[in-house]
């Protein structure tokens, strides 16, 4: 993409602002494991941090179907939602795998159904940048301006870097969510599994704690003793089952 050269001092300022944005975005998403929560944080941070951008939205597809949408302003959520139709800059960015720019929607012939709705909501310019999340989810981040001819090559560069960084962070969010789900399934299976389940019951009785906390106690003991969890459970059950001397 051809980005016009600008005053060096202005370009340095833009680099610093973009670096600050990416740091804030990383801090906001680093511990999140819910995809929708991550999208909400992403659009809020981008809206607040990118100078000249009045609103921000995100459009997500999973296996070709709408998978999620987020908007920094609920009034504009429909502009990012593909259930209202594929006629949008976000869908063009996703389909073509390239950044889409319109800095003056009043002169925009594309998206004849989408553009009038956007203008009614006060949108005058838009940048949509494709975001690759993982093998199942792709999307686009959408930056909206409330003034025509406001979006510059600097905004395009910021959008490109934001989309790249957001893709990495969102992929990590989805990975953490999958790990948490697997851990939950493992916990559920352990709670009802033979000797481990019996050991959990013993600890619950002794400590008056819930099953999840009892499982944590077993795990901590296994880690401290450096032996398998099931062996710890077997030892505990054997100990409490051993007849007492009379």
TrEMBL record:
Pfam families: ANTAR (PF03861), GAF_2 (PF13185)
Domain annotation ANTAR: ranges: 176-237
Sorted UniProt keywords: Transcription, Transcription regulation
Gene Ontology molecular function terms on file: RNA binding
Top-level taxon of origin: Bacteria
SUPFAM superfamilies: GAF domain-like
Coiled coil: none
InterPro entries: ANTAR (IPR005561), GAF (IPR003018), GAF-like_dom_sf (IPR029016), GAF_ANTAR (IPR012074), WH-like_DNA-bd_sf (IPR036388)
Name of the protein in question: GAF domain-containing protein
Biological source species: Micromonospora citrea
